[in-house]
């Protein structure tokens, strides 16, 4: 499982395989069962994650009690709720394991100590975050400018396995459509 992490870190660093393996061995991981809530909406996040195996859903419950799915994180994706800019530091989102997961688990309270012991890890993390932020910005812009059918087509191209990994009502919410609309769109692409 650590090989997934090593392969991912290679994209952001030119250090040798032995050094990457050494870093990966020191990185804490955990296994989480399907249904585990990693973070509840309204809590102050104290962990960040990197998915080695499994699928995590990011969602919120609105004032009317409706769940809205904002993202799904799968293998080789980092999961961090950035909320240091808010007054109370609480999360607007919940994180839930949709499958059994194996995750790298970072402790936000010891993040700087970890970077002090592994300066290369800090540089890699910064590059990873920059890539994630760029991708999120591009995806959001594309989402806002596209029709539901175009969003589904993009999902087929970029994340085709997601369609069979997550419940359809959550996928519809993620695409900003009703489950009935998703069914109609899927039939057209059948």
Automatic annotation (TrEMBL):
Name of the protein: Crp/Fnr family transcriptional regulator
The record's SMART domains line, in alphabetical order, gives: cNMP
Q: Where is the signal peptide?
A: none
Keywords from UniProt, A to Z, are: Activator
Residues covered by the Cyclic nucleotide-binding domain = 11-57
Superkingdom, natural source: Bacteria
Question: Which SUPFAM superfamilies does the annotation name?
Answer: cAMP-binding domain-like
